[in-house]
Design goal:
Length: 291
């Protein structure tokens, strides 16, 4: 059986609702390998650059320093054509950081009150559920651009959170999400390009010239709505001693303790698979009685 890989980068707006976008592409691992060769070749084509970063291209700095607009635009078009050639599935997830910080952050443990953490999990959710709805049976490996602190939090809590998915959806998720350096892992540079464009289109409320090349015919779009944030806020507010888990030091200490307990065989939320099953059954029975 083969392997699919979803590559995702982020782009955050500082205007309006300060929306955070996570966007990228889904393709087979085999095609990503071929893409990487083609992308590297285009990077080296004159005028050459060592890596691609959309913000640098837009502002003609760093790798694009001293370039004319025409040179920059031609390079962008050439790179976008490389993406389009391999026909990946494009997707985007977004959340209003303004609403997130107003609704969720005040009642959340530090790591869970991070919009990047929430959005990473949402990307995994929409893509694995989409693949399942299409009858897919090829596992998906999720690869994100590096985010300081987020990778540790995801690694620690992902297994527990994944259990909320239906079994057929869980089977499509290959391990925990990985976080890579976009300068080294070339498919992330393609994700950087589309993430910047969907964020910029949101700000300008207009279509940008490269959109048709960057978006696939089926382009998945998902917004984390306020109703979802409200529901999560209610759940987080019920956690014991949540106010003692909101500083950087407190969060570091609790993560260290969770990691220690996990190493000893503790399985959240109740300690063992049997206890988790029993408590889950109790909650199900209680919910049926309340109906």
């Amino acid at each position: 059986m083969g392997l699919l890989q979803a590559v995702t980068d982020d782009s955050a707006s500082d205007v309006g609702d300060q929306r955070l976008f996570l966007a990228g592409y889904l393709n087979s691992a085999e095609k990503w390998a071929l893409f990487s060769d083609a992308w590297a070749e285009e990077l080296k084509a004159a005028p050459a650059i060592d890596y691609f970063k959309m913000a640098e291209a837009q502002n003609r700095r760093d790798q694009f320093k001293s370039w004319s607009e025409g040179q920059r635009d031609e390079k962008l078009s050439s790179l976008a054509r490389v993406i389009a050639h391999f026909k990946p599935l494009s997707f985007e997830v977004s959340v209003s950081r303004k609403e997130f910080f107003d609704i969720l952050k005040p009642v959340s443990p530090r790591g869970l009150g991070n919009p990047h953490f929430t959005s990473v999990f949402h990307v995994v959710s929409i893509l694995s559920r989409f693949a399942s709805s299409k009858g897919g049976n090829i596992p998906i490996e999720f690869i994100f651009d590096e985010q300081d602190g987020v990778s540790d939090d995801i690694d620690l809590f992902f297994g527990y959170m994944k259990r909320n998915f239906p079994r057929k959806v869980r089977k499509l998720i290959s391990g925990n999400p990985m976080f890579r350096d976009e300068k080294v892992y070339l498919p992330l540079q393609a994700a950087d390009m589309i993430a910047w464009h969907v964020r910029r289109e949101h700000e300008l409320n207009t279509e940008l010239p490269l959109t048709n090349l960057l978006r696939s015919d089926t382009h998945l779009v998902s917004e984390i709505e306020n109703e979802v944030l409200q529901r999560w806020a209610h759940h987080h507010s019920q956690l014991p001693a949540v106010k003692h888990l909101q500083s950087k030091g407190q969060w570091r200490d609790i993560k260290r303790e969770i990691a220690r307990q996990s190493a000893l065989g503790y399985i959240p939320p109740h300690g063992t698979r049997w206890k988790n099953f029993v408590n889950g059954a109790r909650e199900l029975i209680a919910s049926l009685i309340r109906r």
